[in-house]
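Please describe what follows:
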Amino acid sequence: MRVRKLLAAGSVLVVSATLQCLTTGSAFAADPAEVQAETTQATVDAAQHAADVACAASAASAKVRDAASGDASVAVTAKAAEDAAACQSAQDDLAKEKASLAGASGGPTSDADEPSVPDTHHPATGAITSDNLKWVSNSAGVGSNFAGANFIHYENLGYDFMIADGTGGLSVWSLKDPAHPLLVSSVPAAMLERGEDAHGPADTQARFYEGENPTVDVKRKLVFMARDPRSFGNRSHPNGRTGVYIIDLKDPWHPVLDTYQWVPAGHTETCINDCRYLWTVGPANNGSHVNGQPQDIAGTPQADWSGVPVYVTDVRDPMHPYTYATPVDMNRNNGHTDYTHSVDVDQDGVAWTSGFGGVRGFYTNGLHHDPTTNADRYASATDPVPYAGGSVPNNDPTYGTNSIDHNAYHVTQAASDHSSPTVKTADGTTYDKSDLLYVTQENVVSCTSTSGGGAGHFVVADLAGSYGGEDWSPTLGPNNRFFLKKIGDYTPIGDPASNPGASCSAHWFSVLGDMVAIAFYGQGVRILDMSDPTHPTATGYIRIPADTPNGQPANNASAAYWHNQYVYVADYSRGVDVLKYTGPVKGTLQPSVCWNACTSSQTAFVGSNADGGVGGTVGSTLSLTLGQTAPTFGTFTPGAAKDYTSSVAANVVSSAGDATLSVADPDANATGHLVNGTFSLPSPLQAKASSPAAGAGGAFAAVGGSAAPTTLLSYSGPAANDAVTIGFQQHIGATDALRTGAYSKSLTFTLSTTTP
């Protein structure tokens, strides 16, 4: 389903969507551009329909084969084999879709009598902080060493849990009291050890490394952790073993290791397309046992690779993951296959890969224009469509060998964000917000070191001029690079909390409105104001020094996450620190939280504390969004009278005094009727709607034209996230002549008001 929002005169917001109604011979999944990557019953039904169609064709081919003789039997036998394979493939896909949906869970219904785990709490004596960033608490977890964290909301309990991974394995905390995480369980490193197999010798030391930034499936309550080859006794790239651990966390007090999947990558991983797939990436070598030559999925060293690209794993059935042989993000370093370090999905579903050679964005779902071929095609997790990106200037004198583009965040603007799509900087330059790319460039040296160009910075790049496939040009090479323009730069060197002799590189960060919370290793955490992207400004800081006599480790901050009024910091020495930022949060908060994967099920609102009165204003809001799964009537049966029904979900947010939801068919051809080329159905398409706020609405009514839209719902006051169900009905008469093919219509849904 394509969704498009327009602002029209009279404070009317219009959403347009395509309704597809498929007849015999057309599978719902045949048009993936109309389907967002979210696993629902509708996607299972679509997979069932596709399997039914494929297997019916296989059965028909088998009959033709069995009846054939002579020379014709060769061709029909080949066709029967092809159709049988397609039937099996469709059935396999159906089984995976069912497994994915069946895994959805709200978690336990009670936390009564559930245990906690003994924990250590490091103090923050002598912390150097700004007035608006306060240390709240600490949990050492298992091992006091964490590279990254993530969060899962448990609907049945009504609160969140935090997970973090590091050398000690996986730790799990309850955030029922979000200021004081309670350690409730773990998957210790000893449980993650592997015996000898075709990919490596037996693990010899209970030391997991490193994770580095774990990804989670919030619906199925799964944790995915990449295994770096430097784990479990091995301390160098060439000799270890890479892969992914899949951990079931439906009961956060009792984690279950579902499976371990060998993957020829294993430094970080990210959920793609609603966690149907994982993109697992890095490091420089993946256990090939040949220095400087990573191996492919067959175990063959690749002499022309300088690092590991993206490997794709289907995890719809977490007990039976499948890794594809062909990697993604090849030739990323100006025509050369190099180390892809991380993947970050933005609010629009574009996956951004960072590593040596820069940052690239890819569509992984839907129909898009491929600038490298100048043709439209469907994107998938295994065959993405290039979007934008390129090399990012840095301080490395030998570009792409010392300072690595570590991770990135693409600025996007949700449909509900009515702020300006542009930003004007102090020097008067105007940038499109959607051209802004925040990037950490990692080079882990001290603030005073000049090695490799010095410690890595946090920078802002401009994507303008990179949407034509420039970074994928076959003409690129070491002497012909494609660079984005760097427009902003920040380093903690010289600021009030800096410690010149400690590690000083930028590392993992998260974004809230125009604010960035970012970790800088030995420099602690900074809060950056990005209102002017050309001048990132530190508005808050904290650095925790060592207090050796009292056993207090200094911070070695790896990642900082905005989450529910607090900033949680994964630290390589201290475990997890909890911070409270009390300064103003500038910019518009987006509905989706995007670190690593991107989801709307997490929350990242951070409040501001100040003396004085309390008040607030409500801006004019009129927002209509349609569900991510396109409605379908399935298969129309010629010669049989029947009323076919379907529905689509919608969400209404309105601050207006009244509002009307209506639908219209803007097509002058057979207005209000489904069409198939020059053919149309005799009976009109009918629609109705209902919702908790607006009630049942009316009965099914024919869809009118643009000049006479059909009213679906009427609101007598404001509404907040009103869950609307829009129903459709199509009557097929016993004598209706139906033409083979797909009948469809594009409809315009309008939410309007006369009292803004």
